[in-house]
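Progress note, sequence design subtask.
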C-alpha cells in the first residue's frame, strides 16, 4: 500500500489523446469479452428487478388504489419498496464490481498478450467473493452518501469509484479500505483527465452503438471503461506476468 501511494504521489502527467488512441486499440481486442460482461451483468441482475418490481406492478394492476391511502402515498407499501431498492442497489454494486474487475483483469491479459483464460467470475469465487462483498458495500455506501448530498458530490465521487474497479482488479490482495483509499488518492490526483476521458468515451460508445441500430450499444458499452485501465497503467505502471506466474492459468 505504501508503495502504491508513493507511485500515486509521483504519478507522471497523462496524455489525453494517447490514452484515447490506446483505448481504441485495446477495445478491438476485448470487445467480445466486454459484450459478455454486459450480458452477464444484465442476466445476473434480472432476478432482482423481477423480485423488486413484479409485486408492485401486480398490486397496481389488481388494485390501482393500493399505492394511495386517502389521497396520500401509502407509506406502508412504499417504505418496504424503498428498503428493497437499497438492498437491490447493494447487490447490483457487488455484481457490477466483480464483473467489471474481471473485465479489467482480462484487459490486462490481452494488453500484455498473456496466455490466460477469460475468467468472468474470477472475483465471485473464492478467495475473493468475501472481499468483493465488503468492497461493494463500501462503494455502495460512498455512492449513497454522495447521492444524499445531491448532484455535485456524486459527480466528484464518480472518478474515485471508477478507479477502484481497476485498482481491485490489478491488486486483488489489497485490503478493502486500502483500495478505497488508493481510489480517492488517485482520483484526486487525476480527476480532470479521468472525468474527461470517461465522458468522451461514454458519449462515443453511445453514439456509435446507436448508429449500429441501438443493439450495438451493448457491443460498444465496454469502451467507456477502457480509458480507466490506461489511466492506472500510465500513471502507476503494471508489471507483466512472468512465465512462472502463468503456470496453471494457461489455456490448453
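Output:
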Amino acid at each position: 500500500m505504501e508503495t502504491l501511494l508513493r507511485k500515486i504521489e509521483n504519478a507522471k502527467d497523462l496524455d489525453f489523446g494517447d490514452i484515447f488512441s490506446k483505448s481504441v486499440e485495446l477495445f478491438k481486442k476485448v470487445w467480445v469479452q466486454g459484450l459478455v460482461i454486459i450480458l452477464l451483468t444484465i442476466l445476473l441482475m434480472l432476478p432482482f428487478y423481477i423480485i423488486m418490481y413484479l409485486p408492485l406492478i401486480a398490486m397496481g394492476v389488481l388494485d390501482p388504489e393500493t399505492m394511495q391511502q386517502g389521497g396520500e402515498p401509502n407509506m406502508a407499501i412504499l417504505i418496504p419498496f424503498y428498503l428493497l431498492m437499497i438492498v437491490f442497489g447493494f447487490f447490483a454494486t457487488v455484481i457490477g464490481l466483480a464483473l467489471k474487475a474481471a473485465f479489467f483483469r482480462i484487459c490486462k491479459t490481452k494488453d500484455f498478450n498473456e496466455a490466460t483464460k477469460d475468467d468472468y467470475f474470477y472475483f465471485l469465487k473464492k478467495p475473493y467473493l468475501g472481499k468483493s462483498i465488503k468492497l461493494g458495500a463500501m462503494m455502495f455506501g460512498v455512492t449513497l452518501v454522495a447521492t444524499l448530498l445531491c448532484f455535485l458530490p456524486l459527480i466528484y465521487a464518480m472518478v474515485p469509484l471508477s478507479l477502484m474497479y481497476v485498482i481491485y482488479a490489478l491488486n486483488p490482495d489489497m485490503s478493502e479500505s486500502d483500495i478505497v483509499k488508493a481510489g480517492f488518492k488517485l482520483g484526486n490526483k487525476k480527476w480532470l483527465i479521468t472525468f474527461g476521458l470517461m465522458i468522451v468515451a461514454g458519449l462515443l460508445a453511445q453514439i456509435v452503438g446507436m448508429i449500429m441500430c441501438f443493439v450495438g450499444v451493448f457491443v460498444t458499452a465496454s469502451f467507456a471503461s477502457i480509458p480507466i485501465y490506461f489511466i492506472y497503467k500510465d500513471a502507476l505502471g503494471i508489471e507483466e506476468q512472468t512465465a512462472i506466474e502463468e503456470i496453471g492459468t494457461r489455456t490448453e
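The chain has one domain: 2-67+75-236. Work on this subtask will continue into the next period as scheduled.
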